[in-house]
Backbone:
């Protein structure tokens, strides 16, 4: 559910929604959500001073019963 | 909501926060419609705000569906802003501590509107009346602070607040006959009340 929610939230704010992919990776301490976006959209999902990234983490954390979720943003060029 | 689809070609001024001065009314619609200027301008503005509400509702409904949360979306126009409210009854997680989640969700919703319209949105989001209740509380706080300052003649600094909260407090202080300004840097920006 968290992946789908994050994908929806990000797709709604970027110029290339088709290039948004969220992958869940589990490490020892809870889930890590890895968001891949089009290179032109990376600035948009991070926002001025990291504001948008923070808002996304806040909402996703709330949907995870208030337990923080690590959310990493990378652009598709960086992805293997 | 109506299904109007206005042309969105008015320039807007960047607004850095909810405290910012109201943007000037766009003049183009009036120029196009001649004698019916003000009425036409008003209907264009309303159509633009209704469209903001529609875009926001789609974005938020999608989220509610995915998160399996029960909630209805109410849309309204308050002054010169679209006002969108999620009403459900068990949506505390979308408000969060001191409204932090609500602020985050409002920010994302404004970005979603901006993506569609190309214009900066000042849409207000509420969840289960949280903001309305908070507004009443903050108005009372502003009024009381102004009364204390009028009594003592001394300036008074309030607790740090977010832009929405400061705006409500500034308005209440002005109505009570004092002056106020914000000092400090976000997120620790706070209101200082002074005698007029």
Residues:
């Amino acid at each position: 559910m968290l992946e789908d929610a994050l994908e929806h939230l990000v797709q709604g704010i970027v110029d290339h929604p088709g290039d948004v992919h969220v992958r869940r990776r589990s490490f020892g301490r809870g889930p890590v959500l890895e968001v891949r976006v089009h290179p032109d959209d990376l600035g948009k999902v991070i926002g001025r001073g990291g504001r948008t990234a923070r808002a996304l983490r806040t909402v996703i954390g709330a949907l995870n019963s208030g337990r923080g979720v690590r959310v990493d943003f990378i652009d598709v060029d960086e992805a293997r | 909501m109506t299904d109007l689809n206005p042309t969105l070609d008015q320039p807007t001024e960047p607004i850095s926060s909810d405290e910012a001065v109201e943007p000037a009314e766009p003049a183009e619609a009036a120029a196009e419609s001649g004698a019916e200027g003000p009425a036409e301008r008003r209907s264009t503005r309303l159509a633009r705000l209704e469209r903001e509400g529609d875009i926001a509702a789609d974005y938020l409904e999608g989220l509610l569906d995915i998160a399996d949360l029960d909630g209805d979306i109410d849309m309204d126009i308050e002054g010169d802003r679209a006002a969108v409210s999620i009403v459900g009854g068990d949506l505390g997680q979308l408000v969060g501590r001191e409204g932090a989640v609500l602020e985050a969700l409002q920010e994302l919703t404004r970005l979603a509107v901006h993506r569609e319209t190309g214009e900066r949105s000042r849409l207000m989001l509420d969840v289960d009346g949280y903001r309305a209740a908070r507004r009443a509380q903050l108005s009372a706080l502003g009024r009381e602070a102004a009364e204390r300052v009028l009594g003592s003649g001394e300036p008074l600094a309030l607790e740090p607040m977010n832009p929405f909260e400061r705006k409500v407090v500034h308005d209440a202080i002005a109505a009570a006959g004092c002056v106020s300004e914000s000092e400090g840097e976000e997120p620790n920006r706070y209101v200082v009340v002074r005698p007029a």
About this structure: Chain A touches chain B at residues 1, 4-5, 8-9, 12-15, 44, 51-52, 54-56, 58-59, 62-63, 65-66 (CB under 8 Å). Helices of chain A lie at 2-11, 42-46, 51-63.
